[in-house]
Design a protein that fits this description.
Layout (H helix, E strand, L loop, with lengths): L4 H9 L5 H20 L6 E3 H18 L6 H16 L3 H25 L7 H7 L1 E2 L2 E2 L2 H32 L1 H9 L4 H11 L5 E5 L4 E3 L2 E3 L4 E5 H4 L34 H18 L3 E3 L6 E2 L7 E3 L1 E4 L2
Antiparallel strand pairs: 1-11, 2-3, 4-7, 5-6, 8-11, 9-10
The chain binds protoporphyrin IX containing FE (HEM).
The site of protoporphyrin IX containing FE has 21 residues, from α7 and α11.
Length: 313
């Protein structure tokens, strides 16, 4: 979307991501992270994407929106099917998968409309009651908003958890430092994700002629904004390839820039900090499982398809 339409919808969704809301949701995220980690703490080894990153992303997403636990498994399956169809460039399957997702959301909306005043007090109910110029949002609009949030959450949060645990497994000295002192955890996470971005790119179409980096782009030309490349730009970051959590994170484009800056950034930052904090508290020093190689995710996804870890006792 572009302004002025974009501005109307941003005003509508931004209040769902305020500091108060994020802080109020932190204990539930901590509980979910703890629950998942408790199940792993006595295992000699585990695969971090399937047993930690993906279920964490789905469970916090359902918790944030007030969706039932019965949706956890269908959503996990949905993410996997969506990834496979995107990889295979199977547009028919992608359309069918999009419809399946809409069905999950519509059933949540209908349940709340049917319950009237007895509907649960959650974000999905608020969206159902939300108005623009005195008119309720249509189902299609709510589905579109929730799809945007869900894809933002499920894919990127899971990818981030995988990227961070992989990085810590490979750099025991940094893992140890963070175990002893968590005060640097937030900048450490921003820096790890600057070096290895969970979201490779987004696309734009120029609305008017513009010069970027000395190159003229005409109105109507399409381009790809490659966040992962910008985040290693030596003109923006000194020793751009080096891990340096104390560096100024201002130019870090992890959450985008400008009017489309990620509205979920504060939520995502909290969710990642909580997961890694709990991981370091509940699981002993870990490293990559001997004899295994982390399997990279394939573009357009980022991060890892699998990362096997061993707990070093
Ligand atoms: C670590 C996790 C996340 C990362 C790295 C991330 C990154 C980004 C980036 C780079 C953009 C800008 C896209 C562009 O300019 O084209 C963006 C936009 C967006 N993100 Fe996130 N995001 C994350 C989590 C979330 C979460 C948790 C939500 C919501 C629950 C969310 C919802 C959105 C939405 C709705 C937009 C579009 C905003 C607009 O166009 O005005 N994201 N995100």
């Amino acid at each position: 979307m572009d302004p002025p339409q974009h501005t109307v919808y941003r005003h509508l969704i931004d209040p769902y991501f305020t500091r108060e809301r994020v802080e109020a949701f932190e204990p539930e995220c901590r509980w979910i992270a703890g629950d998942l980690l408790e199940a792993l703490r006595h295992a000699p080894s585990f695969e971090a994407m399937a047993s930690l990153a993906e279920p964490y992303a789905v469970r916090i997403q359902c918790g944030f929106l007030g969706w039932p636990t019965s949706l956890h498994e269908p959503l996990l399956q949905w993410v996997r099917k969506n990834r496979e169809a995107t990889l295979a460039r199977d547009t028919d399957a992608m359309a069918a998968i999009a419809l399946e997702f809409d069905g999950h959301i519509r059933s949540q909306l209908e349940r709340r409309e049917g319950a009237g005043r007895a509907a649960p007090d959650d974000i999905t109910t608020s969206l159902v009651r939300q108005t623009i110029d005195g008119k309720r949002l249509e189902h299609g609009e709510i589905v579109s908003i929730l799809r945007n949030w869900t894809v933002g959450e499920l894919g990127t949060i899971a990818a981030c958890v995988g990227i961070i645990v992989h990085f810590l497994a490979e750099t025991p000295e940094i893992q140890t430092r963070l175990r002893l002192d968590r005060s640097d955890l937030s900048p450490a996470i921003e820096e790890i994700l600057r070096l290895h971005g969970p979201l490779i790119s987004n696309r734009r179409t120029a609305l008017r002629p513009v010069v970027i980096g000395g190159r003229r782009i005409e109105a109507g030309e399409r381009m790809t904004v490659i966040w992962t490349s910008a985040n290693r730009d030596a003109r923006a970051f000194e020793a751009a390839d080096r891990y340096c959590p104390e560096r100024d994170q201002e130019p870090n484009l992890l959450y985008g820039a400008g009017i489309h800056f990620c509205p979920g950034a504060a939520l995502a930052r909290m969710q990642l900090r909580v997961m890694i904090d709990e991981l370091l508290s509940r699981i002993g020093p870990f490293s990559l499982l001997t004899g295994t190689e982390p399997l990279r995710a394939v573009y357009p996804a980022s991060g890892y398809a699998s990362v096997f870890l061993q707990i070093d006792r």
